[in-house]
Amino acid sequence: MNSRLTWLVISLSISALLSAQSYFQQEVNHTIKVRLDDAAHTLHGIELVEYINNSPDTLTFIYFHIWPNAYKNKSTAFARQKLALGSRRFHFARPEDRGYIDSLNFSAQGELLHWSLDNEHIDICKVDLNVPLLPGDTLVLEIPFFVKIPGSFSRMGHVGQSYQITQWFPKPAVYDKNGWNPMPYLEMGEFYSEFGTYRVSITVPGNYVVGATGNLLDTNELAWLNEKVLQSGHALQNTEGNAFPSPDDGSKTLHYRAEKVHDFAWFADKRYLVQKDEIVLASGRKVTTWAMYLPQEAELWKNASEYIHDALRYYSQWYGEYPYDNCSAVRGAISAGGAMEYPTITVVGKANTPTMLENFIMHEVGHNWFYGVLGFNERKYPLLDEGLNTFSEFRYMRTKYPEKQLSEMVIEKRRPAAFLNLNRIPFPRYYELIYLFSARMNMDQPMNLRSEEYDKLNYGAIIYDKSALAFSYLLGYLGEDTFNCIMQSFYEKWKFKHPDPADLRLVFEEQSTKDLSWFFDELIPSTGKIDYTIKRMKKDSILVKNNGDLASPLSYSGLIHHEPAYRIWQKGFSGEKWINLPPDTVQQVVLFDSTWLPELHRKNNSIRCQGILRKMEPINIHGLQLLERSDRTQIGILPAIGWNNYNKLMLGVFLYNPLLPQQAFEYQLAPMIGLGNMDFTGIGSIGLNLYPHSRFLQSLQVRLSAMSFGFEEDRKGSFNRARADLLFTLRKKSPVSPVYNSIRLSYIGADRMGEFEWSDNFFTMSYGIIDILHENRNVINPYSGRLNVEITKDFTKSFLELRYDHAFGYAEDAIQIRCFAGGFLFKDNTIDSLYQYHLSGTSGSDDYKFENLYLGRFENPNDPGRDIMLSQQFTADQGGFASYCPWAISDRWLASIGCNFRIYRLPVYIYGNAGTYSGAGKNQLVHGETVVKSAPVAYEAGAMINLGNIIRIYFPLITSSDIKEVNDLYFDNYWQTIRFTLNLNALNPFAMKEKLF
To answer: Which end of the chain lies in a sparser environment, N or C, as judged by fewer CB atoms within 10 Å?
Structure first.
């Protein structure tokens, strides 16, 4: 033992001794009587709280959580977080659908106590004690309360007469070594409460089936539930209907008792079918299990008891025996995730497949260990709660179903899974892929943060899935027997207490002979990546390079027919290292062959001992390549179909690589041939996605794209465009911020519009573009600002575009406002009208940079021989007018403002635009020799139909006099004034992915 190790052991021993001496835990016992009014959706209750001060401190006040108040208004922490997570539903909820708690009083020994709401959070209150509570003393408080049950916005609520009654009564905050832990209710972020005994009496109408925490004490109700079990067995074939039964004039009072728990929840529904079963644990102790679910889901829930039993069995075997007498799963209308745990009972939302249902049930049952018995502060240390439990979910699914496929989570039948190319992806890949969505883009966060510090993506990707993979890695490194022994010791030492991460680490380091600093000091508190790769192979050794940030332990295995001949763990390293292999004759050497871990790239983890291209995986060619497979080189190939007025029908192939997670190298290629002129055509792009470790830069994307399409119907010949982009996405100040900033530098080479047939060279025009974008993507009033500068040898021009949307309850885009101002910074004396600013947006014949796709690009609206319908397509950029205004152009400056108002829930909007430009108000020559005096300020208004933001059709109703006069000259009837936009990019899944992340 060296001196550094000796000091480490001494430090840990002193720390453990001090921790043991300073640890204390309060005890809080609850006696609650409550009555449900299912007509008014309210609770009337009274509570006795016995608070035992086991701390060394004298308490002069107690913080209480009154979490129903989280649903009271739009200003609570819960309401604000819901908006930050992208949901407007609670923000626009009707007052009658919100909830609250009131009629509160706090008294002790018959004397009223002064209490006050927290200055910031109305779901926290502070109760001042008339007499200080000394160490070792007990205080009994009496608290009447009334709860208005909200609609189903989160964990507590109701849908009709289906009730999820959680976090529903006044409950003291935890007082521990760090002091008081008051916390507001949050959607994303769970709880921390004190252990004690609950005695709860619940009065409900007589025909409700109730599931609750603890033991039901009423023999009559138990007998009634047993009858329900028999009826439910016969009801399996009668699963139609979802209506609530008629009200019951009578009522019943149910009595429950639960010991050594820190919460109490209950669920009530008149429609429930009931399963009841019993499991015998290894010690011989029996646990009664209950499942309560809706009739129309009887087939889905038929094996619910099995799922509960297996969760109890595996967790008891791995960690320590389940300590309670009952365990239940109930179907509820939960709106916070797929399911939610409470002591001895879990509520499950909608599940699409049996695999999903089992996953929900077993995960939440497992929380009886990692939340229930081990009472972590979930808000402060979500890693210990969701992380350990999701790891255990991972173990459960892998142990029980070693051959289960990922597709079974969402698709029950094999044929659709095969069609989607999801049928050969192992189930554990689910955890890996979700982590990689975030990690590949360097958007991930450390595992040791508080719940509220995570953004929506990382709360799942890191706290659940990376943590699951991290503990799986640790298990593989230590071995399952050692890992189980350590966790069982931790469970036994800390059950019914409040351990923290230091307590977990101490047990691991006390009972393991291996250095675990790589796990606790590097993997958990950082975003450092793991990425080992095999570079090459000699006869008896392999060269392994660590491309990652962490020198974590490495395992390598020799495989024969995919089975390991050996598996060896070794200490991690940085840089490159030759590793000597055992003399066994094997077919393949693989890193981490049986260990699932948060590694960035697994494709480079293997090498075959014989053959050519020994590091390349077998090729998988399939129409749909939605998700990356680590064991295959994937090529996506689909038929490519297109149409325009010159090539006519175009047929070809679409080649691409996997959509998700993000690939470093991306390609989407669609070569085609036009059947109208038998000419080659197509579109495509290749890109490199880089995610540097930078304080300022989130990503750098390099992309090359090209397009070539016909320009005349009756002969061959194409216009061509190539584009190079550098997109710099700046790092956000905070992961939870809705603000995004980017800078795009582009170079475009294109044929000169209208001169395709006379040019002997491609790309007779070139353009340099600087595009700066600032966006705030909040869900109530998102806005953006875009500054664009375009540079050519003939001119330099710039524009500023501002957008503002405002949401109402019925639509995110209820109001849309756009402002535009553009001007020339430099130009030759004469600039072709093509390059000037246009009040009426861009027609195909004006799109000189070929930035948009048009069905009839060269169908000029003022050409008498045009295809009328195709000529009516435009892009609502520049001035943004829907009306055709060919004279309203400027080589100096142009400005406009526009607004759309949505008509309630319909896809119909009222639009209006106004604009002016240099030269407005003067005579303009249009349509041959006709002179029209332009308006100083042009305007228009009309109706617009929006079909999924793909097609927008504009019907002008009111226009300024100059627009009306020119329309009468150009067009034969009103229908020719109707124009439309076509946004085919909205259907591009690769473009959608960029918006998603």
So the answer is: N
